[in-house]
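Exercise (ungraded).
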Amino acid sequence: MLQNVMKKILIIFFMFISTPLYSDEFNYHCEEDDFSIVYKVDPKQKTVVHLYSIFKTKGEVRDVNKDMEIYHWDEENNSVWILQYKDLKFSSPAVTMILLNFEYQKMVLQFMVNNTTKSGTMDKWSDLQQYSLYHCYTLE
Amino acid sequence: MSKMYKLLFVFFMIISSPIYSNEFTYHCDRDDNNFSMVFDVNRIEQSIVHSHSIDKTKGEVRREDVDLEIYRWDEENDSVWTLIHSPQTPSLTIILFNFHHRRLLLQSIYNTLTNEKFKTRMFKKRSQNDIIVGDLFQCYKM
């Protein structure tokens, strides 16, 4: 009898601690005009997963499910610095630097591209970089 | 015989030229020509040291001696991506060296909202320049 009660208490205890309420994980939803990005953030594991990209004008939600490369988890400032290097076959290599600031619910994204054509020039700054500011909210 | 010597001389001249050198100084002038940076590049060790900063408006040369963190050494495209993380500011800077095109691109994000004095500015479109800085430099090898 006592064993049964103990088992039930244990089950309830494990159910309780595994609820989202006790998990540090949260979804971070960031918007800029007609485009949104959804991340799953785990501060305990120090991981950020890019879950979805949302194209509002097309009404399209794209599954991404990609682990982001964490450069620095800044606990003091409740922020994360992320880097993304892309070197695809038919485009020039590029690096994206992302700052997630959870305290102010913002995301800053900067993109820099390398001109790897031998004949081209690198004189026009606007062709080589891009930046965006996203307003974000947390879904716990 | 003297022809052989001449050929040898020319050969050594070529292999000791900067084109074939694995160590060189990379001098970069900002577009407005008011600021320059000097780097020591070593291709074999895959290292870059920021040796000097030159502020031409003040006529000031500052010795830096800072080893840059290499993010990607892209031999195929004769380029290097480097990083500078400053926890005090706090900020992250990415610097792209393109040795083929003789250019340097620099971009920084400042997480300045965490400083009390910037709190009032917030993240607004018009104040993005407060948190984002970018520059293009023209460079030459020495």
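Further reading is listed at the end of the chapter. For now, observe: The two ends of chain B are 34 Å apart (CA to CA). The CA atoms of residues 113 and 119 of chain B lie 5 Å apart.
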